Amino acid sequence: MKFFVDTAEIDAIAELNALGMVDGVTTNPSLILKSGRDILEVTKEICDLVDGPVSAEVVATEADAMIAEGRKLAEIAENITVKLPLTWDGLKACKTLSGEGKMVNVTLCFSANQALLAAKAGATFISPFIGRLDDINLDGMDLIADIRTIYDNYGFDTQILAASIRTVNHAFESARIGADVMTAPPSVIKAMVKHPLTDKGLEQFMSDWAKTGQSIL
């Protein structure tokens, strides 16, 4: 499974990237706002830091304007993925931009039907939002499973990018079901290392080692 980091914070990306935990980055207008940086400037810096796809989102809502913005964003670096909303205009823009050889991430997916349309339009990635479905008492993992089944049935190349991941259980279930990619905040990725038995075991080892009175260095 590929790990994308869902942030525009350079330091957080760099820390995870140094450990080999970053296969790509996803950003959106909300994350850019939180970073307080210029969108083109921060996106270029991320692209220089990370080898994999970096999703940069358009802010237009009409197809022609989305296409124009997408082309502008794609000029930033070769690893830019143009992020488009899953609307009819977004699908039109996806078809055009993917036809030009640009990577496209179709976002805000909440149904398998939407995911099917995005694949037909040539999306590189489809981003189903797990956490937001959970917020309205629907199981986001059911959506991941449905999309996996449909894509496998027909051999679509579109990669399932599990998004709106908020917990380590979201990460685990996405991997178990077979999502190609997950994008998560740095805090969730770092929390995946935690287990109480690991902490307890390490505490016991250190206690026993102290009793030996020995030193490795």
Query: Which strand order spans the largest sheet, edge to edge or round the barrel?
Result: 1-2-3-4-5-6-7-8
What integer is the average pLDDT? 96
CATH homologous superfamily (4th level) name: Aldolase class I
SS class: alpha/beta
Name the shape in a single word: globular
Q: Estimate what percentage of residues fall within beta strands.
A: 15-25%
Low-confidence segments, ≥5 residues, pLDDT <50? none
Could you give a short description of this structure?
By secondary structure, the protein is an alpha/beta fold.
Helix-strand blueprint:
Layout: E1 2-6, H1 10-18, E2 24-26, H2 29-35, H3 39-49, E3 54-57, H4 63-74, E4 80-85, H5 88-99, E5 103-109, H6 112-120, E6 125-128, H7 130-135, H8 140-154, E7 159-162, H9 168-177, E8 181-184, H10 186-191, H11 196-212
Written account of the structure:
With 217 residues, the protein is of the alpha/beta class. The protein has a single domain, classed as TIM Barrel, CATH 3.20.20. It is built from eleven helices and eight strands. It has helices at 10-18, 29-35, 39-49, 63-74, 88-99, 112-120, 130-135, 140-154, 168-177, 186-191, 196-212, and strands at 2-6, 24-26, 54-57, 80-85, 103-109, 125-128, 159-162, 181-184. The protein has an eight-stranded parallel barrel, surrounded by six helices. Helix 9 links the parallel strand 7 (159-162) and strand 8.
